[in-house]
Every structure is written in C-alpha cells, then in structure tokens.
Amino acid sequence: MYSFLLKSNPQPIYIFDVENFKFLEVNEEAVKLYGYSRDEFLQMDLTDLYAPEDIQTIIEISDSKTKEKVKSGPWKQKKKSGDSIIVEITKAIIEFESHPAAINIITNITDQIELLKAEQAYKALIKNSSDAVILTDTSGVIITANNEAINSFSIKPDDINRKSILSLLNEKD
Fold first, then answer.
1. How far is the C-alpha of 44 from the C-alpha of 77, rounded, in Å?
2. How far apart are CA 12 and CA 108, in angstroms?
C-alpha cells in the first residue's frame, strides 16, 4: 500500500524509523526536492535535513507517537546543495516493514513565504513613504493608498479604497 502511495503522490514523501530517525523509503518527488538520490537518502536520517539548532525540537516533536495525522511547520530544511527550503509537514505514525515508522508528506512553501515577505516589505515601503502613493488595478480602481495620499486628497481613509483614481481629480487636474 505504501509503495503505491509513494509512487503515485505528486508531493514529496519520506518514511522514517521513529526510533532512530533513519529514512526507510522516499519517493521520486522527495529526491527531486532535496537533491539526494534514493540511495543517499537511505543512508541518512531525519536530522540530516535540519540545522543543528533545530534538531532537539525535531526530536521532541517526533517523539509524539499519536496515530492521528499531524500537520506542523513551517520548518526550515536543508537540501543537498546547501540551500534552505521552508516546508510544512503532514505526519502520521504507521507500521512499515513490521516496525513503527512515520510517514511525512512535505509541502514546499518557500515561494509562498518569500512572496509574503516581499509583500510585507512593499506595504511597509508604501505606508512609510513621505510621498503620496496610490496603487490601482489595471482599470484605475484604487486598491490602497498611504496616509500622505489620503491627506493630500482630503479624503477619509475608508472612502478611498475601491474608488476610481479619476474620482479624486477635479477638472483642472
């Protein structure tokens, strides 16, 4: 059953021994994500994917023997290249080849986290600018404006969003 799950699942998956954290099986998607071959994975253990400062936390979390599916993260993990990725993990305790193991289904959220960081920086830049900044969609409807823009146009903050940029201008403008 696990063989089918590993081969047919589009997400990276690995199975590890809950007692010594040794990898017991990985799917092709995990090989692609982390950059290790299947044989390399099978010579490693779970702690090899984490920075030394995170290993104790991983061990404590992995000690949970609950049979229920558990989702955790975000976690920072290392690829073979040395690059870091940020993942969420869905884990379940299973029996694999007659002994207790855990199956982890990995969701790589690195791009989402980077996009969120960029969005937060962009919003902070707009908010803290001493210039009036108004963002519109492609049809000219205002998405957001900073305090300088709101003060420049003498408009209430709640009244500016979803208005046309043209509605802020008078005839001479």
1. 14
2. 9
Sorted by sequence, the CB contacts under 8 Å of residue 134 that are 6+ apart come out as 142, 144, 145, 146, 149, 160, 165, 168
Structural contact between residues 150 and 160, judged by C-beta atoms closer than 8 angstroms = yes
Strand pairing class (13-17; 70-78) = unpaired
Query: Which pLDDT tens digit goes with each residue over 58-116?
Result: 777 766 655 667 888 899 999 999 999 999 999 989 999 888 999 999 999 999 999 99
102 exposure class (CB count in 10 Å sphere: 0-12, 13-18, 19+): buried
CA distance 90 to 103: 8
